[in-house]
Amino acid sequence: MTDLVLRQGALSLANLTDQSLRVRAIEAAATYDTDLLMDLTVAYMTTASRKGARTSAKTLAAYRLAVRDFVPWAHDHGVQLLRPGRRDGGRYLAHLGTRPSQGQGRRGRLSAATLAQYTAGARALYRALRWAGATDAQPFEDVAVAADPTPGIVKNPPYRREVEAALAHCEPRLAALLLLCAHSGLRITEALGVSRPDIQGRLLVVRGKGGRARHVPLGARVRAALEGLAPLDTDGRFFDWSYGQATYRAQKAFAQAGLDWRGFHAARKHSGTRLYAATRDFTRVGLFLGHASVDTTRRYVAVDSDDVSAEVENW
């Protein structure tokens, strides 16, 4: 389902009168109409939440997935959506915490990040129901997901030599995409959206989260990779792949190189780690990666455990 379809479905609900919206929301909750409740959540997120229309398609898709999971669970466990028990939010989180991961190639329980995402989506559903005037219930407001004690940089560390090895098995367009993530620090969604007009000499204009624009320096190798590509349309876009299509191609290249694929995020961490090693400055790395907080940047940089050994040697 495209972002356009997501937003059009939401717009049809948002354009209803207050009374009509309330009636539709009550009916959807009473009948556990998952599709309509997903649309209601998107309508709220895109017209009444803090970010409004700037809410990313990735967030909307994640919240739809969460609602699609929560509503059938509520039905099967006797939860009245408009009058949930005060412990029902915690019950759902406990259910998620004992459920095995269903991702391809994954084992064990759901990660803390996935638990937080599902809980946030269910919380957004109830905000949408309150926005529609269907209920005042807030069963997830006091539900908190315990933080994962293992840092993300440890669970999914940056690629190191893997990038160079994998590039040898990438065709030119895939190589350019991987370089945009691993050498220019772009998020995969940002990289897939790059077009010829975005290139301004040695800089790339990137529109990141929340619609914020930043100028990212392009190294010689990235510039050469992009210059060697023919745009795919009149807008100058270099890529017409979905996230899934790009992932499939990258997985195949890594497999051919005899490497484990850990996602494009590990490539972005590769760029952050290399830049920090060169600058020793989290602020500059954060600006490069487009982070609003340096605290976020620290989660993208792998620092050796003996990083300061030389400095303290003669203390």
Automatic annotation (TrEMBL):
Pfam families in the record = Phage_int_SAM_1, Phage_integrase
> Could you tell me which residue ranges the Core-binding (CB) domain spans?
43-130
A biological process from GO: DNA integration
Which terms are listed as keywords in the entry? DNA integration, DNA recombination, DNA-binding
Q: Which SUPFAM superfamilies match?
A: DNA breaking-rejoining enzymes
Q: A single Gene Ontology molecular function, please?
A: DNA binding
Against InterPro entries, the record matches this protein to: CB, DNA_brk_join_enz, Integrase-like_cat_sf, Integrase_catalytic, Integrase_recombinase_N, Integrase_SAM-like_N, Tyrosine_recombinase_XerCD
Presence of the UniProt keyword 4Fe-4S in the record: no
Q: Which residues form a coiled coil?
A: none
Please report the stretch or stretches of sequence annotated as the Tyr recombinase domain: 153-313
Q: What is this protein called?
A: Integrase
